[in-house]
Amino acid sequence: MLKRHRYSLGLFWLIAIFLLPLPFIQTLSNGLPSIYQSEYRAIYYGTIAYVWMLFAIYLSTKPKWLDRLIGLPEMYMVHGILSIAAIVLSYLHKEGTVSSGWIKTTGDWSFDLLLGLMIYSLVFMAGWLTNRILILKRIKQILEKLFKHELSIWIHRLNIVAVILAFIHVQLIPYVTSIKPFIYLFDVASAVVLSCYLFSKFVKPLTYEQGMLLSNTTIAKNVQELVIRLPRSSHIELLAGDYVFMAFPDYRGLKEMHPFSIANAPNEQQEIVLVIRGDGDFTRYLKKVPVESRVNIDGGFGRYQKFLDDQPKDANIVILAGGIGVTPLLSTIDANLNRNVKVFYTGHRKEDLLYASRFMNWQKKDNFDCHIQVGRFKDGQVLNELPKDWPTNTVFLIGGPSAMMHHWIRLLKNNGAGNGQIYYEEFSW
Ligand SMILES: Cc1cc2nc3c(=O)[nH]c(=O)nc-3n(C[C@H](O)[C@H](O)[C@H](O)COP(=O)(O)OP(=O)(O)OC[C@H]3O[C@@H](n4cnc5c(N)ncnc54)[C@H](O)[C@@H]3O)c2cc1C
Fold first, then answer.
1. pLDDT digit string, tens, across residues 332-362
2. Which site in 4, 58, 169, 323 is 20 to 30 Å from 283, CA atoms measured?
3. Which of 298, 339, 296, 346 is nearest to 321 (CA)?
4. Which CATH class is domain 305-424?
């Protein structure tokens, strides 16, 4: 039967919000001196805020096991929302407790830094938010000319300094450090998260696989197709619709890893096809990279195929794709041609519609039906073409500009589709 709800995501939220802080609160409450009774609540707020910040840092290391379970875009959203909630709790903690000397100074520095970084990150690092609030998106687009994404990543990393200050703040409070079960838990959790973070920043890059660029072709205006061969011994596990992080270590400006979806079904030749639109410094420079260049690859990430595998095998697949957002869906179609597939694919202009001949070939199959047009589909056009039993036997995969994706999600839900029936991955987080 079709899964209409995403229970794993709900469970993930529950664990993050309630379960993780519980042992900290439990051990702390057993040892807090009664003279601080009036501050108990504010002390708990500070503790929960710290645990959430630790968890947000852990999520920023992109744990692969969690990506396959709930998806990296969702993880980044949880990372962002938990961090904001942690800052609200930190404020309540600050207002509800009395401290002095270095205890106060380290606490204040930590809070001020977190607050400043939150405001910055809400504009530059929270695609899940900027894509929903137009004014934020406009501000980001204007300021991004000055504050490039790479610079924003570095500024965002100062959050670690804020958390270290919070750690020192706690170590300076004698009545807290004397609660041994709590402080052991606190120290071990901090050490584990710091180790995961340092591992992901300094050790993991050494494990990136090195592929070779086989071809680099302009397939449309401002769109490059890169074919990359992974090493024969590659341990990268790719599923259809996955994305990889990719960088060219030998070229200035191309050394930072960027995410791109694979546009072909994973194959034994270990070749991946990336289709990339020139949106910024990194992506525009790609057309100059010569073949046989070394490429660093990390992956695969993503849940398009995992989502399909979790649903009944006979469910129809309806794909709504727009512009460059079609790339992961090309790969997904390629790998699922034995299923009933219906595609609605649009581009702003005719030249934005990629791989027309590939769609023509698929169209020859009885179980494949595609509608391709310039300019968006009307709601009725799509709803009328859906399989008759779509509420109970159809899953939807969406890829494209954020506004387009959210339009179709809203429309489908208003017409009875369940959350768990729809899957999409935005190109920004
Ligand atoms: C899951 C996923 C899959 C993607 N697949 C494709 C694809 O198949 N084809 C394609 O053309 N584009 C894809 N993108 C978008 C692509 O990653 C960005 O366009 C690219 O990183 C922009 O880098 P830039 O330096 O050229 O542009 P910039 O000017 O630095 O950035 C342009 C925009 O891209 C975002 N961005 C920049 N760097 C990163 C980064 N390291 N991680 C996340 N977002 C970033 C920023 O929010 C910025 O607003 C994908 C993005 C994600 C998150």
1. 999 999 999 999 999 999 988 999 999 999 9
2. 58
3. 346
4. alpha beta
